[in-house]
Design a protein that fits this description.
192 residues, mainly alpha, 5 helices, 74% helix, disordered C terminus
């Protein structure tokens, strides 16, 4: 009998999913998808913040959209790799290029919605949240004074966080039932 190596995250996920009876496998996949999405979120947000702090400051909608798009592309690649090999290791009836194309298509649809949201909401959210965030920023950096792009930075990060949360559900269900539709819906009975 071959033993599967489990990491601490796997053990926690299996422990939680095991409480859902016949739906345990789907709950396990969803929880793994959330973990992968969290990793992708760090990649996405880290890339956005880095780009805005360096070559694409949020001084206009175009810069915000370009930085968000590049950050999104980095996250897609990370998420696909993690989902292909960890969340859905049993999904192998399609080639990697085909699954990547399907995954990317689902992600692009999500990206369109998210980018529209960010492009429309970063300025109003920045105007709303900068006064609330300024004391926190100044607690870390007492000499900080808000400049012309401060509201744009705060607003684009807030819009990004909200957008990622909304699109997560689209991505999970579209990928589960299209990209990775070749896996079993419920736990297979033990063979023996």
């Amino acid at each position: 009998m071959q033993r599967t190596r489990r990491n601490p995250v796997d053990r926690l996920i299996l422990s939680i999913a095991g409480r859902f009876g016949s739906k345990a496998k789907e709950v396990e996949r969803f929880l793994k998808f959330v973990v992968v999405g969290s990793i992708g979120f760090v990649v996405d947000l880290g890339t956005l913040v880095t780009l805005q702090a360096t070559v694409l400051p949020p001084v206009n909608t175009a810069n915000v959209a370009i930085a968000a798009t590049l950050a999104f592309c980095a996250a897609i690649l990370s998420n696909f790799i993690w989902n292909r090999f960890w969340t859905y290791p049993d999904s192998r009836s399609r080639s990697v290029p085909r699954q990547l194309a399907q995954f990317a298509f689902v992600s692009v649809v999500g990206w369109l919605g998210r980018t529209a949201w960010i492009s429309v909401m970063y300025a109003p959210l920045g105007d709303l949240l900068l006064p609330l965030a300024l004391p926190l920023i100044q607690a870390v950096n007492p000499s900080y004074t808000a400049g012309t792009v401060s509201a744009g930075r705060v607003g684009s990060v807030a819009a990004q966080i909200i957008g990622v949360g909304l699109i997560m559900f689209w991505n999970f269900f579209a990928n589960r039932y299209w990209t990775y539709s070749d896996v079993d819906l419920v736990d297979a009975p033990p063979r023996g």
